[in-house]
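Re: phosphoric acid mono(formamide)ester structure - here you go.
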Amino acid sequence: MSLISLFDLNLEKIENLFRYAEFFKNKKTDSLFSNHIVAHLFFEPSTRTRMSFETATYRLGAKSVLLSGSHGTSLEKEESPLDTVKNVAAMNPDLLVVRCADTVDLAQCQKQLRVPIINAGWGKLGHPSQALLDILCLREKLNGISGQRILFVGDTRHSRVFASHQELSQILKYEIAVCGPEHLIFKGFQGVRFTSLDEGLRWCDSAYFLRYQKERFDTDDMLVGWDAYQLNEVSIKHMKSNAFFMHPGPVNWGREITESVLGDSRNLILNQVTWGVYLRMALIYATFRNEI
Ligand code: CP
């Protein structure tokens, strides 16, 4: 089975993944899957997701093959990403981990292939492993996730992370709200929207800051208004003392968040990265065992 959308999973499967990830955090594993190969196809840039999937692959004893960007590949000879995925699948790896633009029909492609696919960031459409690792990271700090209020700040409109949290929040029953410049609010979002960051920060149990995705902007002036939604030494005073703040990375320091709050004990940004490896180990492990 593949993981394209979080609706491919259910509560039981997600709880199972979290249990595996917590197990992997506490126990070193070596050569569980030494005969397995994971093909990582990253058509769009990535640091955290690519390197944590590769680290997870090696920690499970499996082997990794990697395509990262177009340089030196037949993409430079006008082969499409879709054809590239199909050709690598024809080499019979045990799993494909794919990051691509939303112009690639990953969902349809997965139906045509026998090799499972994990979506590692699909244009604006979704980033399921990021949403899962975020909640796993928060769970370590909280008693439970159901009923928790998470405020998403900044560019929700272009955010695949926010798209995936919209799905995951329906399964795990946490509450989400948005806050940011009007023109950067996720189209069609029906939930609570705060126009004031201070109000939003007072409301939430955790605040999740998102990068302004200039590479997906239609016009340069879409950045207008960002400065009212920054976490800094002034706005952080409105956060509850037991609330946390997160960011999927890469952070544009001085835009979404200032370095002045880096040392705050409520900062979970690097904890997210650490949990990313264990969550991705759990995903690969469950896929190899045919459990998702
Ligand atoms: N969070 C995230 O997807 O980061 P990368 O783009 O570096 O993988």
